[in-house]
Amino acid sequence: MIAATGFAQKTVAVMGLGRTGQSAAKALVAGGAQVLAWDDNADNRAAAEAAGIACQDIAKRDWSDIAALVLSPGIAHTHPKPHHVVELARAVGVPIIGDTELFALAINALAEKDRPMVFGITGTNGKSTTTALLSHVLRECGHDAHAGGNIGTACLDLPAPHPGSVYVLELSSYQLELTSSLRCDGAILLNVSPDHLDRHGGMDGYKAAKRRIFDNQRKDDVAIVSMDDTHAQNICMSLMAQNVVKLVPISAQGMLSTGISFAAGKIYESNAHETKMRVDLDAAPALIGRHNGQNAAAVFAAARHAGLAADAIAAAMYSFSGLEHRMEYIGTVGGVRFINDSKATNADAVHQALATFENVFWIAGGQAKSGGLDGLEADLDHVRAAYLIGQAQNNFAKQLKGKVEVHRSGTLDAAVAAAFLAAQQSGLHDPVVLLSPACASFDQFADFKARGEAFRNCVAALEAPKEHKRPA
After folding, report:
1. Each residue's pLDDT tens digit, 396-437
2. pTM, 2 dp
3. 425-428 long-range contacts, Cβ below 8 Å, gap at least 24?
4. Residue 261: inside a domain, yes or no?
5. What CATH code is carried by the domain that includes residue 335?
6. What is the CATH classification number for the domain harbouring 32?
7. Cα distance between the two ends of the chain
């Protein structure tokens, strides 16, 4: 645990007692603060109480002694309507922060010689894979690296810092908007496409939240920014004009004269003097697809900033096993490959999956996000049939009508069975049953992980039809 020492001997309110809220409450107590904790959900309160965190309704007490409100990233801060506790905090002038800000304050309090290296990773898609890959590369090359934040372990639950340790943090827009003091030695922006717009009041608010990852960087830090979409490219150009941080552009759509590029399955490193091929991603089976080329390019740039040799980075990438629920190969049954891409909850993420495979029997649906399947028209050439589930199935069927063969399956198990049978009987080369939902999971599953595990169980239950010999 990292003790949140920034509020020692002060009273701090914690609102929201999920994974990050409980972590923040414990870290604050370890740092010497008095904690007032609450969650509107009775089950979350019970779980917190069981973990030793006392609860009281902070909206029903005097706030004159409260130094800060630590807000769970899942609770509305500004849009579409601030939570009533947020409005109360603003009314009495109490700062509103998140657990990542507590992490930042703890790291900033260290002497420079004791400060660990911090990498922050954000973007609409690819954050989790990039975070896992970078931490893997650093560990394989001898660094004491720890991954957390929006992926897996809450940042304050990571091991305490020491000289030479490295933190690799996945940072969502929700987390970044509640953070003002974080300094990233390396800050990565992978891409920006419309997502969570209701929570940020539109695209401008969403972009502003993403851009906060570069706040507080110094001249010897590195900003690693994609050039592959207009929004990220504009941020890259803005950082270049400001000239306050070392900038490394990355691209998976073309060769850069300066920066890190992915082209024809390989990672290239370019400067003013030369371009060299550094990593052959064809030798990294967990990093297939152009989107993973972008992820790998970002990781290569970050690992170089950490002082690693190109050959060592390449060797580490080749041993990466991939991330669960993101383009995860589940297995092959009866000549049909199964790919679990449950984490693909928006159309941009689905685009990356559909563009990777030919002869796709696609399972999609769930709780739809704004835009639905918009932008996927060019990828539908790879889809042989779509099997739709959940709340979105009727709307998705309308969007896909006349473009691909559509089946309303309703449930995931029905979709897997129908897609498998069709794929096996298709006679196509290397058919793939792909779960890439373009939706949140909450209509039928607790989260995308539960949906991915259900898909895995469906595949495990399949049995290829046995061949029956004709009578002699």
Report:
1. 999 999 999 999 999 999 999 999 999 999 999 999 999 999
2. 0.83
3. 426/359, 426/361, 426/384, 428/359, 428/384
4. yes
5. 3.90.190.20
6. 3.40.50.720
7. 71
